[in-house]
Design a protein that fits this description.
Blueprint (H helix, E strand, L loop, with lengths): L1 H13 L9 E9 L10 E4 L4 E4 L5 E7 L2 E8 L6 E7 L6 E5 L14 E2 L7 E5 H7 L44 E4 L2 E2 L22 E7 L14 E6 L4 E10 L2 E11 L6 E12 L8 E15 L6 E15 L11 E18 L7 E23 L4 E3 L5 E6 L9 E3 L3 E11 L1 E16 L2 E16 L3 E4 L19 E15 L5 E15 L5 E17 L6 E15 L3 H4 L4 E8 L12 E7 L10 E14 L2 E13 L2 E14 L15 E5 L6 E5 L7 E2 L3 E14 L3 E11 L8 E15 L3 E4 L17 E5 L17 E17 L4 E18 L8 E4 L8 E2 L8 E4 L3 E3 L8 E2 H11 L1 H8 L3 E2 L9 E3 L2 E12 L3 E8 L7 E3 L6 E3 L10 E9 L1
Helix pairs in contact: 4-5
Length: 990
């Protein structure tokens, strides 16, 4: 595949020296249809040859050197409906006079749903401003409900929504982390957040300033990297506009916004600004605990050399000041509260230069910066009847606790008794930057259009935060600092090349082939990972069988795409924090004033570097079919995603010994307990008791050797996950008499995640002892874990994966009456089929056993057809403290020990995992259910727009049945459908 890609690219580059005939001058004027006023800053684009122009103050445009032949002309301008026309370019072309319709409800064709992009070679959807208004989107994540088969949830800023395309919750493979989000070209990078491996949060983004959203769920261009699950591209308002005042109100949210597009006059360009305030509270009866955002954005645009080689310059800045606060709530319990400062600043600068030369068509330069200031504050109530040891040492050795007032910098201090409050902070300030350069060369050879793109990206991610810290040292519990700002920067240099061929194959048909290759070179300064290089080949093919044919099927086209997308690791994966193993080494008992001077042995276990760690990537296959049957539009898409090397965490164990001195060692100590002062040798662990009065000589206490394990986190690559599905949109011919249209959209989704990673684990119950009453020292080595998040290490469980099938259907009835400027939408969201089951199986061999009783250990091998039975899972191997590298087959030894070694049997039994209930492994089938939403948008003249929506407006009380338990659950108050919710919106243009 790589050889083919390179061959095509080299062939395309060799065409650069080919002579090109002089093209045609295409010019014209753009005016508003309503009043004939010239439209400035309208973008005129010729799709096939990718030439463009920006209109001047008189609405004029001119594009030079346009190749002869058929092209598609598109005109876009803020506040106007997009204009599209097919042109036959030839010598002596007359000047074009184009009239644009205002973008409002007076248009005959208005949609409030996501639209499938019909002119691209992959699956992509666009959502315009009217659809966002009709949905009354508060959070960017709300757009997911507009995609095929999407479900509506009540908008809230209290949840930091993470978008995960073509996936569902609770799955392996880090789907949200692989979904990229860009706003005006600025990537919302979450790589530099040490505490999670998730996609970027979206609640800091203003939805009032969004003009359109493009969601690419198929195979993206190689121009886009650091993703593995599609991309969401947000475009904000840019262009001349009146003052727009917006207000939205629902049961838990208030939102107001103001925006304006200013023409600075002459050659000074355009200036857009937007301000938004939004506040969501959790409980209408106590609206103090709330999250709010306050967003201010500004964008400047200018076009230089419009009539010769237009150079478009754009500069944008956006800032958000906001966060979560429950401190002011008078209903809070015991004065405890949480606060979150959630500020963000982004800036972007771009220059797009249309050279239109034989050897080069255009050059694009982009740079961006994204900085977040996130400070989490937690003020919590704490109490204790006795003093507790607070361990702060970062050194290896033995340490004894001291009173804070006597030794405030001691490695272990004694905590207070009684009631008190602890204030802690987590300071995270991720910073990312990007520089991008791309050059396009578009030429026509005979009837074939050929576009070659080459580019380079340089990106960086780091964190300037302090990490977790506490306000008062005296009250700081066991804790060690982990400074985010000390972590190295993740830098990535990417180079890519892509060629697109548009080949006419008939009068009404054509083929478009896009092939590209991307190379990401990641450099992590100061890290053992050093430099890593990955290749991402991608290809898309689109074939138009016919377009505009006077037949039953008027339009018919299909596309197919395949590609590899690589996701760079997060800081959580690259820089796992040091683990500290604290083992109790001395228990002196409590003094007369209720103090216990415990001693601990501490061992800092440094993060384990994994030289075999590979970057996560997804192989994507995307298929699509689009057709017009009469006046009915049909769009079908199918996909298959297989994610390889998903990031996951395991624990590495290493045996060690330490000295333990029990309270019994003090039984014959002649020093009175009130006069004792304890010391422990940091290296040897020997405890010495001193008499603070000097009346008795110091005494060394006897000790015993204890065995234990040092543990640390290590990030590895998990097993592949599979997803495939079918998506459809059917827009039926409108019923003209009723001015009503019907849309059916839906999806079928399949997911299978099955882990067969071999990992080590101790019994999950803390303080587990062996048959002799000593700390447990056997390690189980299990095959497969059910863990789905990198926040948790792989842990033994009965299941090691899951299987999901689901099918959803949405029925949307839209009535649009242009004369009275109103659009009403009724949407019925149906869950036709939901199937989910836990899996416990291996590609080869048996993983679990079915037992007759819940406390049995032996049974027959588990298969998927077994119902209502308890199940046990053995580790595949176990190892001992004395020989940690020797893996002993568990099942065979466990069966032998049952009859020959009861002590060993009882110890090994602690490694067996079992179900708590007999139905746990049953498949879950939910009966079908549905809910209905209603929305209406009404324009009053050209200045005022009113909106209303109601989710689950009949407040369904139906019941859904689960086949796993055989029980029925009411949809009322459940998580299956949104609760009854409504809201109002107002937009005024001044």
């Amino acid at each position: 595949m790589f050889k083919i890609c390179f061959a095509i690219l080299l062939l395309a580059l060799s065409h650069v020296t080919t002579a090109n005939a002089q093209g045609v001058l295409l010019g014209g004027t753009i005016k508003a249809k309503a009043d004939g006023v010239s439209v400035e800053y309208a973008t005129v684009m010729l799709k096939e040859c990718e030439l463009w122009a920006i209109t001047d103050s008189k609405g004029r445009f001119a594009i030079k050197n346009v190749p002869t032949g058929n092209v598609t002309l598109t005109v876009r301008c803020l506040g106007f409906a997009t204009y599209t026309a097919a042109l036959n370019i030839k010598a002596g072309m007359p000047s074009l006079n184009i009239a644009l319709n205002a973008d409002n409800l007076k248009l005959n064709e208005v949609e409030v749903v996501a639209k499938r992009k019909a002119d691209v070679g992959t699956t992509s959807y666009t959502i315009d401003r009217l659809a966002l208004d009709n949905r009354q989107a508060l959070n960017l994540g709300d757009i997911m409900s507009l995609l095929p088969g999407g479900k509506t949830w009540n908008s809230s800023l209290l949840r930091d929504t993470r978008i995960a395309l073509r996936s569902s919750g609770g799955e392996m493979g880090n789907a949200s982390f692989g979904t990229a989000i860009e706003v005006d070209g600025v990537r919302l990078d979450n790589n530099a957040t040490p505490g999670e491996t998730l996609g970027a949060g979206t609640r800091t983004l203003s939805t009032a300033n969004i003009e359109s959203v493009e969601v690419v769920t198929g195979v993206p261009s190689v121009e886009y990297g650091d993703l593995s699950n599609g991309i969401v591209k947000v475009n904000t308002r840019s262009g001349k506009s009146p003052f727009i005042v917006e207000a939205k109100l629902n049961q838990n949210t208030r939102q107001v916004a103001l925006s304006k597009g200013l023409d600075l006059g002459g050659k000074w360009g355009l200036f857009n600004f937007s301000m938004e305030h939004a506040r969501t509270f959790g409980d209408i009866t106590s609206p103090y605990t709330a999250y709010q955002r306050n967003v201010l954005s500004a964008q400047y645009m200018n076009v230089l050399m419009r009539q010769s080689m237009p150079l478009t310059l754009k500069l944008g800045v956006t800032g958000n000041v906001g966060g979560y606060n429950s401190k002011a709530d008078p209903d809070r319990e015991l004065d405890s509260y949480k606060k979150e400062r959630d500020n963000r600043f982004t800036a972007n600068l771009s220059a797009e230069w249309l050279l239109n030369r034989k050897w080069l068509t255009s050059v694009v330069l982009k740079s961006s910066l994204s900085y977040a200031d996130q400070l989490y504050e937690n003020y919590s109530h704490t109490s204790s009847a006795t003093t507790l040891p607070y361990i702060h040492t970062m050194k290896a050795g033995y340490f004894v606790a001291y009173d804070y007032d006597k030794y405030p910098s001691a490695d272990i201090i004694l905590g207070p008794t009684g009631y008190w409050y602890v204030r802690s902070f987590n300071d995270s300030r991720p910073l990312s930057y990007a520089f991008k350069l791309k050059a396009d060369w578009v030429k026509r050879f005979a009837r074939i259009y050929n576009k070659v793109s080459v580019g380079a990206d340089y990106t960086g991610s780091r964190n300037l935060g302090r990490g977790t810290y506490y306000e008062e040292a005296r009250l700081t519990p066991t804790w060690r600092p982990y400074r985010y700002h000390e972590l190295p920067t993740l830098n990535n240099l990417a180079v890519y090349a892509e060629e697109r061929l548009n080949i006419p194959t008939g009068k009404l048909s054509n083929m478009e082939l896009t092939v590209g290759l991307r190379n990401d070179i990641s450099h992590i300064a100061g890290s053992a990972y050093g430099t890593a290089s990955t290749l991402s080949p991608r290809a898309n093919l689109r074939y138009v069988f016919w377009h505009g044919r006077q037949a039953w099927v008027r339009n018919l086209s299909a596309h197919a795409g395949w590609g590899k997308s690589v996701k760079l690791p997060s800081f959580q994966v690259l820089y796992p924090r040091t683990s500290y193993i604290d083992r109790l080494a001395f228990t002196p008992g409590s003094t007369a004033d209720n103090k216990a001077y415990y001693a601990y042995h501490t061992f800092p276990s440094q993060a384990v570097y994994n030289p075999q760690l590979q970057w996560q990537y997804t192989n994507q296959l995307d298929l699509g079919l689009q057709m017009n049957i009469g006046h009915t539009r049909v769009n079908l898409s199918a996909f298959y995603h297989k994610t390889f090397n998903p990031y996951t965490a395991v624990v590495v164990y290493k045996p060690y010994t330490y000295k333990y001195t029990s309270q019994a060692a003090l039984e014959h100590c002649p020093i009175p307990s009130a006069n004792r002062e304890y010391h422990i040798d940091q290296q040897t662990g020997i405890v010495t008791v001193r008499d603070i009065t000097g009346a008795n000589a110091p005494i060394q206490l006897p000790y015993k050797e204890r065995e234990g394990y040092l543990s640390n986190r290590k990030y590895v690559n998990g097993s592949p996950t599979e997803r495939f599905g079918i998506e459809w949109i059917v827009d039926f011919a409108p019923i003209k008499a009723l001015r009503t249209s019907l849309r059916l959209d839906g999806n079928y989704y399949y997911y299978k995640g099955l882990d067969d990673l071999l990992f080590a684990a101790l019994p999950s119950v803390a303080g587990t002892l062996n048959a002799q009453g000593k700390p447990y020292t056997y390690i189980g080595h299990y095959r497969g874990s059910g863990t789905t998040s990198t926040d948790n290490t792989a842990s033994p469980s009965v299941s090691n994966g899951s299987l999901t099938h689901e099918s959803n259907l949405n029925i949307t009835l839209t009535t649009h009456v242009p004369r009275i400027r109103i659009i009403m939408s009724l949407r019925v969201e149906c869950s036709l089929y939901q199937y989910n089951r836990p899996l416990s199986e291996l590609p080869n061999g048996t993983r679990g056993y079915v037992v007759e009783k819940g406390d049995d250990f032996f049974g027959k091998p588990y298969t998927r057809d077994i119902r209502d039975k308890h199940m046990v899972v053995y580790p595949e191997y176990y190892s001992t403290w004395e020989e940690p590298d020797k893996l002993i087959p568990f099942a065979e030894k466990f069966a032998w020990a049952k009859d020959n070694d009861p002590t060993l049997f009882n110890d090994l039994a602690k490694l067996v995992k079992r179900t708590n209930y007999a139905f746990v492994m049953n498949p879950e089938r939910l009966s079908a259910y549905y809910s209905a939403n209603f929305s209406v948008t009404k324009e009053i003249g050209d200045r005022v727009q009113l909106m209303f929506y109601a989710n689950n407006f009949w407040n369904t009380m139906s019941r859904v049945r689960s086949s796993r338990t055989g029980q029925e659950t009411s949809l009322y108050g459940s998580s299956y459908v949104p609760s009854f919710y409504y809201g109002l919106g107002l937009k005024v243009k001044i």
